[in-house]
Amino acid sequence: MSTSSSENNPEDVNHRSFWMPGNYHRTVKRTEDAFQACNDIVACFQERARLERQYAQQLNEWSNKWKPVVDSSPLYGSLLKAWQCFLSSADRLASLHASICRSLVSEDADRVRTWQKDTFHKKVFGGFKESQDIETGFTRAQKPWAKRLKK
Questions:
Q1: How far apart are the first and last CA of the chain?
Q2: What DSSP designation does 3 have?
Q3: Cα(5)–Cα(12) distance, rounded to whole angstroms?
Q4: InterPro entries in the record, alphabetically (predicted)?
Q5: Could you give the CA distance from residue 119 to residue 107 in angstroms, rounded to a whole number?
Q6: Which residues does residue 131 pair with via DSSP β-bridges, in sequence order?
Q7: Beta carbons within 8 Å of 83's beta carbon, 6+ residues apart
Q8: Which segments of the chain does DSSP mark as H helices, in order?
Q9: What does the pLDDT look like over 43-65, one tens digit per residue?
């Protein structure tokens, strides 16, 4: 049975531990990661909205292409009514997809952007105030421990 390198060298485990001085950087980086995740999800919403808009336009074009054909055809009765209902359902579906597009762009993306703006405060020279505060807090909290560890 093989053992991992961390089991062979307990000193290595201590250096990777969150509690060791300076090993909090992954936690501090979560602020930048969360900010980027907000940008990514807004981009995802915008891409989905673009797809919904395209689908709605294609349904409208398709429906507009077939309406004159159906209206000028010699069909009558229930067959004509069924075909007209089929085309009108495509119009309603196009309207639904257009409203999904508007909702994704105007409501959902705006909500994420507002939350992002309220939560993350950029500094003048780059980075975020929250990251600096967290890093300063960790540094101060670990200072006595780091001194004792050096002794």
A1: 38
A2: -
A3: 8
A4: AH/BAR_dom_sf, F_BAR_dom, FCH_dom
A5: 18
A6: none
A7: 70, 75
A8: 5-8, 10-16, 25-71, 77-102, 109-119, 129-150
A9: 999 999 999 999 999 999 999 99
**CA triplet 46, 47, 50: central angle to 5 degrees?**
85
Q: Which two tokens stand for residue 24?
A: 């909090």
Written as one letter, the residue type at 107 is E
Return the closest-CA partner of residue 35 out of 135, 111, 127. 127
pTM recorded for the entire structure: 0.69
Buried b (16+ CB within 10 A) or exposed e, 70-108: eeeeeeeeeeeeebeeebeebbeebeebbebbeebbeee
**Nearest one of 105, 124, 103 to 113, comparing CA atoms:** 105
